[in-house]
Amino acid sequence: MPRCPTDITLCRACPRLVKWREAVAREKKREYRDWEYWGRPVPSFGDPQARVLLIGLAPAAHGANRTGRMFTGDQSGRWLYRALHKAGFATQPTWERRDDGLQLRDCYITAVCHCAPPGNKPLPAEIQNCSGYLREELAQLKNLRVVVALGKIAFDQYTRLTGLRGLKFGHNIVHNTQPALIASYHPSRQNTNTGKLTEPMLDAVFASARQFL
Fold it and tell me: 9-211: what CATH class?
């Protein structure tokens, strides 16, 4: 895994997020009452030699904040890992536990914000506090050919950090930058339950990524 400026799992830079993630970990959700929640910043996950980088928004309160692995334990992860497995970027479509044996192939997953935010909405200052980790990962991932931004917040933060200007966000819009940038709707319940994002639409994103490899 690329080295970050400090151990991200120890970060307490955002008081609101620290309070929320730890409260959720104590109180738990009834169906997960037997779990020991992670309740800390969730580290990035994947192949340090990856040519494909996925940037999400933030851990879900009872998903990655519970399991300790990006996009694990919630419906967004079910959609994402199914698509990654189909495209050959994941060894299995399992997404429930960080010790389930799932490995990523030529793919690395990070997020704009590494702590679960209330309402799944990190504040601009909280995104800024986490930006150093993403900046460092971009420097450490030497083999990148494709960046997939899952959602407009991830898209905007990536273009901001890399100095890209005037790029349009829209599902499966491919920008021929270096590395290539592919915009995607986030596989959130809000998008998948309403049909704004379908499985074929998400598969098309990773088919686009494959074309660059």
Answer: alpha beta
